[in-house]
Design brief:
Layout: H1 5-13, H2 19-24, H3 33-51, E1 58-60, H4 67-81, E2 92-98, E3 116-119, E4 122-124, E5 127-129, E6 134-136, E7 144-146, E8 150-156
Parallel strand pairs: 1-3
Antiparallel strand pairs: 2-8, 3-8, 4-7, 5-6
Length: 174
């Protein structure tokens, strides 16, 4: 249970997230009140849409309590669709591709045949060079930069990969 509003009054006046609120919503990041509330609202909207049966075209991994399980489910979904081609979960690996567009572009709103789009990933100490499709030095005085939409799918593991090796979900760290 959350404490009475009076106990949270001082941090709110300082535009900070009260410690009790942060503890109750531990996966919502940040300490400034405005961005924290915006993040909480975005997470709530995404989860409510999924609960209503709406499948978003792009997911925010930060809105999920267990993003690795979500990525594993995305891989499983691709493997199920490709089972007739002989794919098995043991032979599947996660494949990611940084796209050349953002969440607001029309391309990001088109339903995918396979895989999912994810958004909201932040790069620290570098930026994504869209022209060359690779990481680059950050802009002057910029500590972080947004990564464009990322397409996540699965592929059969490359030849020489260890049989039965777990699906490599550590490629993306939140």
């Amino acid at each position: 249970p959350l404490p009475p509003a009076a106990a949270c009054r001082t941090p709110r006046r300082a535009a900070q997230v009260p410690a009790e609120w942060a503890a109750a919503a531990r996966h919502v990041g940040g300490s400034s009140l405005g961005p924290w509330l915006l993040s909480l609202q975005q997470r709530t909207e995404q989860l409510a849409a999924v609960a209503r049966g709406h499948r978003p075209t792009s997911y925010s991994l930060g809105a999920l309590g267990n993003p690795q399980a979500f990525l594993a489910a995305a891989v499983q979904e691709v493997v199920r669709r490709r089972a007739k081609d002989g794919w098995t979960l043991d032979s599947a690996a996660i494949v990611t591709k940084v796209m050349a567009f953002d969440r607001d572009d029309a391309q990001a709103r088109k339903p995918l045949d396979e895989g999912i789009f994810i958004h909201g990933l932040i790069l620290d100490g570098c930026r994504w060079d869209r022209q060359h499709g690779r990481l680059a030095e950050p802009q002057p005085r910029a500590l972080s930069a947004s990564l464009p939409i990322v397409h996540v799918s699965a592929s059969v593991a490359a030849a020489g990969a260890a049989a039965g090796a777990p699906v490599g979900l550590s490629l993306i760290h939140i």
